[in-house]
Amino acid sequence: MSAFITITGTVGAVVLLAAYAMVSSGRMSGDGLPYQLLNLGGAAALMVNSAYHSAWPSAILNLVWSGIGVWTLGRLVARRAARRRAAGSAGAAPPAAGVQAADTPAG
Prior knowledge:
Elements: H1 2-24, H2 33-52, H3 56-90
Helix pairs in contact: 1-2, 2-3
């Protein structure tokens, strides 16, 4: 089990460093879904490793880091859904001339 935890932590560290390097070099956007997913996965892996080895300050840091990742992913998903709804309603055909929409009062 210890080898698995060590590999998990190592992969988490590599993923975090790779994501950071890609953002720093301009090859990936820090606002994008791929970066946020890599950040969350790396932090979660390091959190597991740190907790297993009772490195509580690091485990707590990575727990908070993972929480920020979940919150940010939630915001990204919500924004995407809002854009899709807006695009869908903008693409809807307006009522024909002389025909009133069902929710518009006559007047």
